[in-house]
């Protein structure tokens, strides 16, 4: 940090801190009508989760995301140690996230900690099988992109790789009962890659997203094996039914089902609980709100050439 | 950092630094024809602004973006202290940014500092009302997305939340006379969320952007209340008229007006100074360059199914 | 960091580390069938490359990306020193990347280092001319966007600026024989800007991308002078021919050619080895898979207004 | 960090990690005969305490140890906020330290936390009066050293200032029942200043140590008001009686008593439970193991000049 | 940072922040009777000075304290750049320190900055000659200690080296009119090495302190060429005369004069304005308050052996 | 960092960088008469060694210096992983240090690396036995100080503990042929504790230094078992014989031998190659240059009381 001269005339630099601070407190009191039993709930920490994800990523693929100097004799010490620190951190974040799950009002402090520990332990037990599925995803990327020169390039240079790793970790937590945490993880991936996969979505093995910026996969989407997506593909909801009070009904199936071996090119928008049949190909920029049978090939009509002037 | 062995044969590692440095200086001298009175103007620091935004964000929503252990007795100390450090930093950035506003050539050093202080103080005074509008935005997100489970999730996991918070802060600075600073802030938000809102745009309360990657909102766009946008929506200019010298005319109204209660789905492109009437819905991927009356429902024609092979 | 109380009941916090670590090792052994001569190859470090890019960026444009307090007497010391540290770091990353280039199996340790040093020295020698082309890009941005108020704004606030700087540096490394490194750099730019330019693409001077989120430019694309792109434009491949074994054929020309003075608006998708003739304008959201002659104006048919309900 | 080339021949770099790790575990098992109920007690963190002390120091003297830009309107926000973060951190360290106090075997987790919270709250309540005594110490330094030009110099440049501030904070914790924590604090001061004051010592107001390196003040020493010490003064124990088992008897009074207005010059060694009467002056390098009456002046005999050769 | 579980029962963790903060403010108001024209003076920053000293040290001896990878072509860029950043930082610290020099009450803001700039520029101009004297000190160390194996060892492993480098820099600032800054630097050296040299002392070339812990050299001491000191040597004042008001008279000569080629062994205490004649040797632990002629050899009488029991 | 306003008037802030940099280069060229084969040797890094020592310390005593949350299942992963990173770092530092050992002129790059690797591996193999001796030292501290309440206190709060741990590690490296590295380590300990033990000294088990500030133990000192020292004890050389050229003779035995069970109290100075017989006690401030038989009790004569005024 390079600091040369600072003006000294501090008497100018009053910000009316008292007034602003008071008004902000009043603003908070107006909006926080419901207090959580007199104290503030700790939220999960995005910074902590980023550290956890870095750790888990290097546990799963230590030769690519771990320290560069790992050797055969040192790699297991690295994996075990990083796993331990990551899980310790995760357990605390799970505990905080449990405070935001619906019926936790009756949970004692000890009960919450115990559940967080159990979820974390179950999550750890799933890591080897998560790794297995991720290996199928990496191979799908390598085989699916003619520009990919090595698995190393797939791991280092493909945003889809980060997106699918973080999705599979988030999905495991989502299923184990930590949905808020899973959502924070999916948003970390989204921010870094431009790929927005809701952790509730179900995605089969050998999944590949190329380029990926702008991809959106909704909460209730179901995706089979060997599916390939390109950038800016949306698997979204078409409409949001409301209940008799006008509130949106939450949680019902409203996103597409993609069967095995489907390919969807850049910019296609697939909306609603429709089914894209096995082996179908959906062209770029296609707008699709109806199911299509297996082996369909859908493409946008060629834009007509027109001289505007 | 894990450093094992380094090669010692430094004699190989000459980079012709002298030559390259000289050529780069010559390149600079060629391009910098106009010098600013013999010395280099300090630019606003993006890193400083990121720190300022972190601070202001936690001042506005301390229970979600502040320290996790805040209590009723400590929260005002945190808010006041963070406000103070953030505003001190901001005042310096405003001062630097003023160097880049048009007619500042005649401004004395003291005059610039005084204006920077005044702008910062005015900005601080607006924070409580900015917070009020942001609360309406958060509620719009919670009510507008069936996947949202809590306000906490909206604050932690929605890129649109960061985009709108940073937009509203940037817009305040834009209006107070610090447009370059406002643009840096909007680019910080863009880089983090994929949502690109020009700080000159005018956006009403209860605004919600879902997913958001690829959204672009232009400098002269005007958006009413309770508007909702999805990813990859463009509110852009259609054409850029040039003056008699062939230079683009800057600053004239050229982006759309969205009236209250408009919804625009993913990938729609709305261009030019047109008006989308109150309560209209624009479907995904729609390409629109003409005004539409209130309560319109515009959608793209369904792509025809065609078996390509 | 604010740490209050931690639970002490550590006996709950066993994660079955031994079991999970063992299973992960088995999973690695299954997937890593091919070992690289008994030890692990070091991969290029993304963090190191980010530091290198920060350094090179400030070497090219020290008054905008360097320290704020640079003066006429200090600027060359800053440039020379930053150049030296950046190139030292780069040489090591180049060496690592060379391990992943095809025929390196016969390369000795000393040979690799020598090649890395030579590539780095050649790269350094190109920096002044790279700067020259970048200046043309900056001027194109300033002249091409009516919202741009100064070159400073273009350097600080336009994601396209980072994208083109990093592309031109990556392209130089790609041509000098460090393609993996070039790809990591392009992915760093992609992650930060949403703009995905393969370092193999060839792009002429005075190139400008506005907004940019979602732009994809493929490996074999060729772009002339004074070309302008908007967000979400894809210059992609249409199909991926496979060889007799079913493997994708890698490296053949498969992306578009854009001649001089072409403009492509937001969301257009241009696929395959087609040529967009000089001076053509392609409208937003256009889907184009055939060549067009010079001075063409292609636009999407206006979506018909239809009241859905 | 500047990293150029690293040798690749990793196959040489096996360290027999397995063997060494196993032998270290066996060594631990031999020495840790007594296990603490099957799990490892967390120790207080020296790094956390250093952060706490930085915080408390700036709470006590915000204009000297706080942020440089504090103003009348911001200072209380700074003090309150820093106090809160420091006390939160301290409460956790107190809790850990309580695990090492004798009869804690029967303490429940909740009981420990409650005691830690109570000790921390009591400690906080003493801070204003601690500050009052420290002000008398600062004035004694300013008045006692002809080289002191301002109170600012006393706060910034005198190691004795840090030593007395940390001693008074440590002594308060020692009396409140956190002796291990108090000892870590005294060792932090010792490491930084060369002045080793046991937190159990009792020291009156207006105390001044000049230069200070090598000063040692033992656990049961008692020091009156307006006492002044120079570097390398020892207030130590003369002998350590053992009980019938040969173990040293711990805790009995064994260090000197210095009455008010005593001055002890550099290098003097005062040993045993003796009393230095009010107003006495002890000269440099004096070796003293017997009480002296008030107003005594003790000095070492002048070394005789002797030409050795 | 490894954080597992935290207790949630925050309602216990109120610290009475309001009360303590109020009492601390009252305590400040009592002690700060004299206010400095309504605002708080910024103090020099010890952290900034540590950074400055690191920089200046590497400017003076770049091959030992600079980056390890410096080459003939890069070393001047490193030196020039580090010099620039260090001097920029120093100028600000000098400006702050000037606020504490006696008659600065009438100084305008601009006048202070100008003086700070001038002092810094003069200081920079002295660096080459300071380096010349330091080289004589390093050679004296290498020649004076039979355990020294190389100049590199003297630079890396001798606390006396840091002490003399920092002293010579501090002394230059002291003479240029920044005594408070000089004192902070001397205390940084003291804290790191245990050697306490007042920046007002005058020390000739080829000066060597071995081991050094506990050495004290007073403000008005004068030391000739080729002098050697060992650990725990005090060159102090004998008594402090007071004026008619009882205040200590500040600034008068009160510390010893050591002529050329004097050697003083460990633990010797030399007090008062006495002269140790050229070529004299003072033995360990000697207590000396009278001048001695040239070539004297003074030693402590051998302690008699006495069986205590 | 809190930065408010900076003065802009940079035209004042020229430091004559060119002149000063040139003069410093000339000064370097004058003093560096002997060049090391045209390039600069890399020196060992004190910062790297501090990191290595932190690592090794936590490898030896993981429950006290390691992460606070270690469990039975995680501790070996932590130890193995930390050992690996520390040894990798150490090997590089050993390699650098070998450049400074006398006859390395003929060593090839590969030869140096191989020797560094071998020294590091041998060092690692000694760690378990080093730990065994250190445990005897810790027990000696606990038993030798009536103020010590637990082994935890000895590990956390006694500077003598750090001094002996670092000495034993440095001594191992000294004996394996890395004396410069050993000296840097001993100076790190000296700077932190005020205790200066030359790594060449030989020290038996169950060694305890209390308080410790100012202790100096010379290169050829030999210390038996169960020896106890207090602060400011010097075990030094009496005189330094020169050869016929006037250069000091390096390396000959010149420091004291302390037999088993010797105790030396604060401030005693023991000089020359003398022997303190088994079981002897040397009192505080004693000056001793002659051998004493076993079981001697030596003390300083009591200072006579004399009223100075």
TrEMBL record, chains A, B, C, D, E, F:
Q: What Pfam families does the database record attribute to this sequence?
A: Hexapep
Keywords of the record, alphabetical order, are: Acyltransferase, Amino-acid biosynthesis, Transferase
Q: Does the keyword Acyltransferase apply?
A: yes
InterPro entries per the record? Hexapep, LbH_SAT, Ser_AcTrfase_N_sf, Serine_acetyltransferase, Trimer_LpxA-like_sf
Q: Which EC class does it fall in? A: transferase
A GO molecular function annotation here is: serine O-acetyltransferase activity
For this protein, the parts annotated as crossing the membrane are none
Q: Name one GO biological process term.
A: amino acid biosynthetic process
Task: Say which domain of life the source belongs to.
Answer: Bacteria
- Which EC number(s) does the record attach to this protein? 2.3.1.30
Q: Does the keyword Transmembrane apply?
A: no
Q: Which SUPFAM superfamilies match?
A: Trimeric LpxA-like enzymes (SSF51161)
This chain's protein is named: serine O-acetyltransferase
Q: Which organism is it from?
A: Undibacterium terreum
């Amino acid at each position: 940090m390079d600091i040369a001269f600072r003006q000294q005339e501090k008497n100018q630099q009053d910000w009316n801190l008292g007034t602003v601070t008071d008004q902000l407190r009043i603003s908070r009191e107006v909006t926080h009508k419901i207090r959580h039993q007199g104290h503030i709930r700790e939220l999960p920490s995005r910074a902590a989760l980023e550290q956890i994800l870095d750790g888990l990523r290097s546990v799963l693929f230590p030769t690519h995301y771990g320290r560069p100097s790992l050797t055969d004799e040192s790699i297991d010490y690295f994996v075990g140690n990083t796993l331990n620190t990551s899980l310790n951190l995760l357990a605390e974040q799970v505990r905080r996230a449990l405070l935001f799950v619906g019926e936790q009002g009756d949970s004692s402090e000890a009960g919450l900690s115990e559940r967080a520990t159990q979820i974390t332990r179950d999550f750890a037990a799933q890591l080897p099988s998560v790794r297995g599925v991720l290996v199928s995803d990496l191979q799908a990327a390598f085989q699916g992109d003619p520009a990919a020169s090595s698995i190393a390039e797939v791991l280092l240079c493909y945003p889809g790789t980060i997106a699918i790793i973080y999705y599979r970790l988030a999905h495991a937590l989502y299923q184990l009962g930590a949905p808020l945490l899973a959502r924070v993880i999916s948003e970390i991936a989204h921010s870094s890659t431009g790929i927005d996969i809701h952790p509730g979505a179900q995605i089969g093995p050998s999944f590949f997203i190329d380029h990926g910026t702008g991809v959106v996969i909704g909460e209730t989407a179901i995706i089979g094996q060997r599916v390939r997506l390109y950038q800016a593909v949306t698997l979204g909801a078409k409409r949001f039914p409301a209940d008799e009070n006008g509130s949106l009904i939450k949680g019902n199936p409203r996103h597409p089902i993609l069967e095995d071996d489907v390919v969807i090119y850049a910019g296609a928008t697939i909306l609603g609980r429709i089914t894209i049949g096995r082996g179908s190909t959906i062209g770029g920029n296609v707008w699709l709100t109806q199911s299509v049978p297996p082996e369909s090939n859908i493409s946008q009509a060629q834009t007509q050439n027109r001289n505007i002037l």
